[in-house]
Design goal:
The chain is of the alpha/beta class. It contains 16 helices and seven strands.
Length: about 375
């Protein structure tokens, strides 16, 4: 059989770290390579987590950089190359140059299965490479397959093949209701997401085995594997399980998630960083910029140096304006107001869980690498 490389990108955040621990613990037979795309502008807490994770995994995490230059860090190399044009939501050259391209260069033309830690309680798709030699798997979700695989598998033309695959499964026992569901074609009134949901709800294991059998007739990397252990996994991992995984192995959440107390107008609140990645990530909330100013003032000042007229990390506001005392106090007030509304509308959350986790649950991604790899 052709050698398949199994790889997992570590962002320095909670989800990718928990995924590494989860796969190492539950599937020790998988020979996984771990890598980290280093921008040169990460928090010290991120580098600390990488070191601690290496100890747990018992192997080195390969550090990828977007440049071979040793006289300058990757981010400064590329911002120089781009004429000091800051990355933004509309021009994410940072992700492309320091995450995606180094990853695709790292794997080359080898057949690769790439594991991504998008949780079961997240409603988003991860990065799927346009390169046909790279296949993405999402172990934390009920649907572990990427959207391109699902599109091909649930195509109406494939119905006879799916029916035969299901009939070959002894534990299905010729379930007529399930077979009728498989035979029902997609239409305006029966969408692909609905059929996917119903099939996974009936039996994730049967669905995964059938998809794996389907892949045998394709050029996807997993077509070269005789067996893939994740097809028998029916677990769905959400934020609470991610926290438990990290705590139980002794790693804990990355230090930048730690709640720190602040006070404004006599009212106390707690803030923390909600994502991994560059300390000046343009996706972070304004309260996180306040956190950076008060907890890592040197890094905040370093981020300020990149700004110039018309080019700021935050739309319509410079870091020089944001760090004025009155402005920071207003950001804190707005944040506390938002938190009060959040807690009011989320009475179902257990009091035993840290309130800070609510921010994470509310869709805070852990950084660009987790969104794309």
């Amino acid at each position: 059989m052709t050698k398949i490389r199994h790889v997992l990108g570590i962002s320095g955040g909670k989800d990718s770290s928990a995924l590494a621990v989860y796969l190492k613990t539950k599937y020790p037979s998988l020979d996984i390579e771990y890598y980290f795309g280093d921008t040169g502008k990460e928090l010290d807490e991120t580098y600390d987590l990488i070191k601690n994770l290496e100890v747990f995994l018992g192997q080195k995490i390969k550090v990828l950089k977007g440049t071979t230059r040793t006289d300058i860090n990757p981010f400064d190399h590329f911002i120089e190359l781009y004429g000091n044009y800051l990355p933004s939501t509309n021009a994410r050259w940072c992700t492309q140059k320091m995450k995606l391209e180094p990853f695709e260069k790292y794997v080359g033309n080898d057949l690769v299965v790439s594991y991504v830690g998008i949780r079961g309680d997240e409603d988003r798709e991860g990065y799927v490479s346009s390169k046909t030699n790279i296949q993405t798997i999402f172990p934390f979700r009920k649907n572990i397959w990427s959207v391109d695989v699902i599109n091909k598998f649930l195509n109406n033309k494939n119905i006879p093949s799916i029916v035969n695959s299901y009939k070959d499964l002894d534990f299905i026992n010729n379930n007529d209701e399930l077979l009728e569901l498989i035979e029902r074609p997609l239409s305006l009134h029966f969408s692909q997401p609905k059929k996917l949901y119903l099939l996974l709800d009936k039996s994730p294991k049967a669905f995964n085995i059938s998809v794996f059998n389907f892949l045998k007739e394709t050029d996807y990397p997993l077509s070269k594997e005789e067996f893939f252990p994740l097809i028998e996994n029916e677990e769905v991992i959400t934020i609470n399980e991610v926290v438990d995984i990290l705590n139980e192995c002794g790693l804990g959440l990355p230090k930048y998630y730690s709640e720190l107390e602040f006070e404004v107008d006599g009212e106390k609140g707690k803030y923390h960083r909600s994502r991994s990645g560059c300390f000046f990530c343009f996706y972070q909330q304004k309260i996180e910029w306040v956190w950076l100013y008060e907890q890592h003032n040197d890094l905040y000042k370093e981020a300020m140096k990149y700004e110039k007229a018309g080019y700021t990390w935050i739309q319509d506001e410079s870091l020089e304006q944001l760090c004025k005392p009155d402005r920071m106090n207003q950001i804190k007030r707005d944040y506390l107001k938002k938190q009060r509304l959040l807690f009011k509308n989320k009475p179902q959350h257990s009091e035993s869980k840290s309130n800070s986790l609510l921010n994470i649950i509310e869709g805070e991604s852990e950084g660009c690498i987790s969104c794309f790899l």
